[in-house]
Design a protein that fits this description.
This protein is α+β, with helices and mostly antiparallel strands. 27% of the residues lie in helices and 29% in strands. The protein contains three helices and six strands; from the N terminus they run E-E-E-H-E-H-H-E-E. The chain has helices at 49-66, 84-89, 91-102, and strands at 4-7, 21-24, 28-35, 74-81, 108-113, 124-132. The strands form two sheets. Strands 3-6-4-5 form a four-stranded mixed β-sheet. Strands 1-2 form a two-stranded antiparallel ribbon. Helix 1 (49-66) packs parallel to helix 3 (91-102). The chain is globular and about 40 Å long. The relative contact order is 0.28.
């Protein structure tokens, strides 16, 4: 049984692609460093936000799996986007990418607009916290 429990009170707006609150009991914390669309050679790949989002999320999930976790173990994720309007414009597609790669167990999430990321070509960075049983 997962130590991660999602809470979405009916008094709040229905969540779309995130959970309002996440509680965790027991388990081991995994702090996941920010991941961008870097390939194995350290080069940013993907011309547009959806492609970069898919690669960044894949990279995050690869690190999580290496630590012994799975997407359902994610308790908190923060997405840093260099263009929030572009992120909102692609929200439906980004949601489909999330569901394809990570499923429908949504963590508590936030999207934060930033002026730029470490690699100038990066459009998005994703970090997170997971809890392993």
């Amino acid at each position: 049984m997962s130590p991660v429990h999602r809470i979405n009170p009916t008094e709040l707006s229905p969540p779309a692609g995130f959970s309002h609150a996440v509680t965790v009991t027991g388990g081991q914390l995994v702090f996941l460093a920010g991941q961008t669309a870097l390939d194995q050679g350290g080069k940013v790949v993907g011309a547009g936000l959806p492609e970069q989002f898919a690669t960044a999320l894949t990279n995050l999930l690869t690190a999580l799996r290496a630590a012994g976790g799975a997407p359902a173990d994610l308790a908190r994720v923060t997405v840093y986007a260099t263009d929030v309007a572009d992120y909102r414009a692609h929200a439906g597609e980004l949601g489909r990418i999330w569901r394809r790669l990570a499923g429908r167990d949504y963590p508590a999430m936030a999207v934060i607009g930033v002026a730029r990321l470490w690699d100038e070509q990066a459009l998005v960075e994703i970090d997170g916290v997971a809890v392993l049983p």
